[in-house]
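Reopening closed ticket. The problem is back. First fold of the pair:
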Amino acid sequence: MMLQKAQRFICSITTLLLIFSFGFFEGSIVHAWDEAALDSPFGFTTSFYPPKRKSNEEMLAKRKNFEFDGITGDNPPYSTAIELGVKWERQSNPVLDWSFVQRDKESIQQGKYNWTIPDNFLKRIPEEMNIVVTINVNTKLLRPGTWEFIVPQAKEAYIEFVKKAVERYDGDGKDDMPGLKNPVKYWQVENEPVIQVKKKQGGGPGAGGQGAGAGRQGGPPPGMGQRGGPQGPGFMGGQRGQPPGSDRMGGQTQKGSEWKGYVELINITSSAIKSADKNAKVLSGGIVSPPPKMRTEILNEFWLPVIRALDKDSIDIFDFHWFDDSIIDSYTTYKILRNALDESGLTNVDVWMTETGASSKEGEKGQAIQVIKRYVYPLSYGIKKVFWAWALVEGWPPFDCESMFEYTGLIYDGNCAGDPGYGVKKLGFYTYRLMTEKLKNSDWNNVAAISNGKNGIYAYKFPQAEKDVYVLWYEKENGKTTIDLKVAENSKYTVTEAIPNVSEGKQLHSASKNIFNTKTLISSGKTLPVEISSIPVFVEGKKSGDTEYVSDEIDDDDESSVSEIVDSKEQPPTGKTPQMPGGYGQSPTGGRPMQPKGPDMGGQPGNGPHRGQPMPGGQMPPQRGQSSDNLPTTISGKSYRDLEVWQSSMDLAVECYNLTKEIPQGKNDALAGQLQRTAASIPATIAKGQAMQNPKEFFNHLSIANGSIAELETYLQVAERLDYIDSDSIKQIKQKAETIAASISSLQKPFADKTQH
């Protein structure tokens, strides 16, 4: 009897599983999730392939009139991205902006939704790809310069919009989009939120920084100026439009309201998303990729407070954008973010990089090299997914051929000088395809850094089930060197250059074979000498077991490895810095799309500064090594040895070297070495800045030295938590470090006063 019951039970369970797997539940959609696709780190923002445009005027007119049809230029849709090996599609604007779905106050008040725009895009994404969708609030319903809703009804309407959106695209069979095939499970709360609140002090024209009007599509939401308030009286019961930078308490937006409002926005959006779909994942908005001196301000005044205040279950993924010339510099900012997340109890939150890229304007070869570096390097230090931006096919509204983002795509759009024609693939396209093919089966949790820049060598091992794949390059320009890999004994390895063996992509076509230079090497014993240059190479062959690590830290001879972030309660010194392409340090999606003209919400495109020009009221700083008449000079005629702060930091370095002797030898040599190098970098950086006899450089190097102090204190805390070093000894070192930091700040003050005018 018991056996029969057990058999019936197993039979019932099996039947249910079969029903579920074939999607027989009423109206439900079962997505055949591919674990390999979920694990893959290869993404794009966005791999949508737009048709060739007839004219720029026609394209801009369509944007103003909500004519987003989602029709792709390749057939079937996204087939080019699939050929490329893209597994993650990040749909940002123009997809799910609240103002696209509810275009006027009547629609909001009556609960009417127009899903045409997101439907047009999302219905065409094939099941082979995972989708990330960015949800954008309607800034017309926010208080100027903040993320705070003007009235409670606006917040309630937004929450209802989010629930409806998630329910429509979650694939559970309830109120789904008709014909939905590929459910959305990853939702991002805004894109680069600090951009929306960055402002000049004092309000007035342009006070929204670049704000909502300076992004990818070049214009603010309907009815908005540069981050202005609601236009006209009584929208959703709010007050008349307010000047940017003001609030109801008079004058300026209160300090702190920017990040506090965004914390609430994440919390309420996440709650709404997960109430509609408990399996959904939530991404924070991305951090902009600003010039170095702005990073301190952005992290200390916005992102670090946000991280510390977030509800513990509000986000699953933290987003991080990086467009600086050097991807190597991204590691320092990542460390700051990762430490903050861990200290705030968000240890299970992964960090993704959903926007990075490089321009082909200066040559296709340079861009192709960056494709490899901008994926391999972040994946080696902890980033889980990397998305190339912006986008698969180049083109940057208003299509003026000036912004770098006109050239970041891997396929030409047929415009701008020297363009060989719409649809022609660049060298970077073929490099990306080779990279995804070589690395697709890697164990992403065990990517090994063999050398992170030591002596200019970058070497990474991607273990796979049947073989090992190494990615190697030499950072010094036009140079070559040889690295001895520790591999399987007397085995054959294939070496493939990552860049096609032609000068331009137009010399190739999709069916081209043997477009990459390859050669075969045989290891001598367990050593494989490989000659490397600035062109990355893939080396693949028999698994070797353990790898002999040359270095698992960034080479500290390079200034870029030194932290520039000082988590201080004081206002960090900020200079007048050049604008990054697209606005205040932002990536292409940093601002809002050009919002089409809707009923009772007419607006004009943003009229902020032209891309590539300084911010309003800003000036371009002197070039590296060039003096400025507006800054005080350094202590001319004096040696760095005469500086008390240098002398004190030298003493500190010696004490730290002695302190590391307490760490058990062989137990954590890497930590001891990092403590020593960081401590020594403080006086070394001060000395270098003073020796340049240039006020701007001196100021910058003092900032870097101060960042090294913060980094040193972090390593000391690690050593203390591991009980490697006596707490009293660490306390004394920290007190001395704080004194040096205060001295550096005092030394910087004359420069800060000048740079803030």
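Second fold of the pair, where the issue appears:
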Amino acid sequence: MDDHRANTLDKPTRAGLILLAVVQGIALLALHLAIEHEHWLAADQRWLKALYTVAIALPAFYLIGMERLRDRLNFLPLLLAPLLFWLGWHLGWVEQTPEQQQWVRHPFTFAFCVSLGVALFILALFFRSSATSRTWPTAYSPLLNYSWEFTQTLSLLTLFIGVFWGLLLLGATLFSAIGVSFFETLFSDPVFIYPVTWLVIGLTLVMIRNRFRLIQSVRQMSEALIKALLPLVALIILLFFAMLLFTGVQPVWDTGRASSILMALMLALLLFFNAVFHQAHGLPPYPTWLRRIILLAVVLLPVGSVLAAWALWLRIDQYGLSLDRLWAVLLQVLTAAFTVSYSLLLLWRRQAALPSLQRANVGLALLVAVVLIVVNTPLADMRHWVAEQQIKRLLDGRTTAEAFDVNYLRYQLGQPGTLALQALVESEFAQSQPELARRIELSLRQTERWSQEPLVDTQNLADVAQQFRASPNGATLPEPLLNLLVEQNSACLSQTEPCQTLQISSGTPFQWLVYEPYSAVGKAYGERNGDWLLLGHLMLLGATQPQDDPTCQTTLTMNDLERLTGPADIYRNGNCLYNLQPTIENVRQQLSAQGGKISGE
């Protein structure tokens, strides 16, 4: 390692970092109390996410990137504040719902934090290097050194905070065991948690950064371990490519997982390669034959990029774009930028390729940071692209109206998906598809994904009947059964997709099976003495032969069930066996009809 920096922070910088950490803790406490006391900030996700983004990201950037407190360059990151506010504002707009619930779980915050965190980590490397060298960083070695320092500092900081709070909670539990609950109450109070935690973060950060030689020692140990693992990763990738010559690529498509595993190994090879081959001059630390094996694996990495892209394209062509697949596309494009660059430079420059690779790393790192920031802005919101593509597939016939996933756009794409559905329901296409238009209207009417509030007028049985898709064709649910389902507040009434119902034609005690969403258990309804009753739940037992079990798990129940003789309530449909588990009300009625008496009543 060629790092000869000073070993300590000056006193003003130490004090500034600790003060900045405490201020960040107080800012986060204020936002927490705003949510707790239902301030207007908590109701408007745009303001809340914008302020959270600035309060977390900007101080964190300074805490790991600031070299000296008295440095004019420290004013430069303040330009990030409006950008961070804008990014958070857009995230809040995407996640905004008509009736925002306290501490609601959002699907986009995690991806936002990871992508923005990686981008700011890269920018902090350039800022720290600029603050040290007083020039824009063009050399690769300082950036690599700082990346190691940042990673190890954050790891040690996380470990220390975890141990610190673990000891506090153990102590609080110990005192609580002898009747002293003061500490348990104190340690659970946000007024204590935020200031104390961030004060400890500031003190710990200063302590870690003042012990730079310790970080160098940990880096040397990590590099030694990576040096041992790099040939293994290279060998696995080369053997995989070699086996494809005999097996073909079809197994990669069949598993659906091989391409993801290959991408993970490729990223590991790139990281390990950079960690070991970081010296531009001198021979890398391997024998010639082993070094050639590693370089060959790196040169062939574009093959892996092509295979992963091919597998992903097959999925997109078959099922269309989804947000997860579009993130996978972005990751593959960025990874391909590295793999293709490395392969071309190694083939072109040969022995002199390492300096060129390091210069390429500097440019590619900035590219990654810029792309990860841009995709979190309205300029390149992937949710908007996915919504447009899903609707385009519907309009051109590649997706049928019955298969169109209304709930995916409504709940997995945030506001862009909601706006796309609003535009679709007003289009001529939706007017020509009344069932699709109804599903969209019901979805837009929901305020929560899993709300149990009926979406239809329960006084209008015609509306209620539309929540059920009866089989066989032409069958209709009787009005008394619809009234019973309304009385029971069936989950089918609060769903945008109609529930599957089956009219049983054979001589069973029940006449209808109702399958609620995401359930493989049928609710069995039957008429007894002029009244409709939920008799029990029909559950799949398996097949008559063990080898047919998978087939029965994917086969819908038919209406010609046959009851098997015997004490158990077992039914057969072809090779599939079902068991009817009665409800307690059904059993009580049977006992009452027999003149029996229920014990304990």
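Update: turned out to be a display glitch only; the data is intact. Residues 99-104, 597-601 have pLDDT under 50 and may be disordered. DSSP finds 24 helices and eight strands in the chain. Please close again.
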